Amino acid sequence: MKNSPLFRLVSSFGPIEQREAGKFLRSPFFNTRHDLVLLFEYLLNENAPEKEPAWAASAGKGKAYDEQKCRLMMSYLHKLLEQYLVIKEVQKEGLENRLRLLRAYRQKGMATALERSAASLKKVLEKQPLRDTKYLAAKYGYLLEHNRSVIANDPTNATFRHQMESTLDALYLSTRLRLICESISQQGVYSVGEDGSIDEGFIALAEKKEWKDMPAVSTYLHCFYMLSQPDNEAHFQVFKKDLLALDGQLAAEEMRGLYLMAVNYCIRRLNEGEGRYSAEIFDLYKPGIESGYLLENGVLSRFTYHNIAAAGLKTGALEWVRQFIHEHKNSLERRYRESSFSFNLARLEYARRRFDTVLELLQKANYRDPLLNLSAKTLLLKTYYELAEYDLLQSHLDAMRNYIRRKRVIGYHKKNYLNIVRFAEKLLRVNFLDKKEVAKLRKAVLEEEVLTEKEWLLGWLG
Question: Do 32 and 120 lie in a common domain?
Fold first, then answer.
């Protein structure tokens, strides 16, 4: 019973959901069986429930255990709790529930109540700031119900026809453009049809002037241009301008996706050697984090936390980075909180050239994640070199090389960190009085494709 879908579901409930589900089960509108309430209460109080004690607690001690009836009772309770979850979600759907009320009034032939509810829904739709696909779907639903009511009395009335078609087109365009953008972003390619190209008629429809001021369409269209023509920087700049001007017109989930697509585009340009995109990334990260769009259910990814700090340090916004590191520490997942906090604080102190503090922070922390550990080791490597602690550095490089080979660090990361160790050793041994030797090492660093610390190495080699 411990591994049953029913117990797993009950175990997932927090205190508020436990109370709500209990009230739901006691409501005669949804449930008239008291044994299901008793079974639910039994499961709430047991860490390792078993069927026979569950049966005794719900069916009554005087009744002999019946395997089939026990299974049925568990199945009925599971279905009721799933119904509770559905209703809980439905209650969140303000606009959709208003549409359901319109439909109910229309089906009952209550014209006055329908008109009153339709007017109220229209007012709510226009007053709320969102202009996303949910808004378009609700607007289409409102027009559809109103149109059905009108043509019931006058089949020739086409008052709402054009608005319905336009709204449905916008909903389709926005939904499909979002799918295309996400596909390109995730896979790097998007193909439709035998020739592998996107239908020109679809793009032509999306480019019509009537969608210019509709962010659910225009923003995704400019995002599509940016992703499908990455070498044309003008498309990125237009998309970035659109994104920063949205001001709450799209839902937080969509905004998060759009910000990440813009950031990933900038990272790609950075990886191609275009250093100016560090400032572009910071221009995106700063409003993205301040608005909360880059958090998911109140949680900030440790990767985003590292990337934001890195972008700020790259642009020299040290005080902003300091505030960010401290203010968003508690937004991180608990298991990564302390290690991510100490590492980014160490990076900040390195940028401030407070190398003794860097050593203190790095030596105290416990970096269990291999890639974060390697990032910390790289920072420690640079700090030793800055302090001219060459003997410590050589010992550190030997230990770092062994760590890379011992851990399951594969592909790009393994090659990158082994290259960092290799070139750091060369930097340690190069004779700076020999210009040819320095130039030869500099050339080797420049030609190495997989080397994230290229800029730091070149900073020493001139």
Answer: no
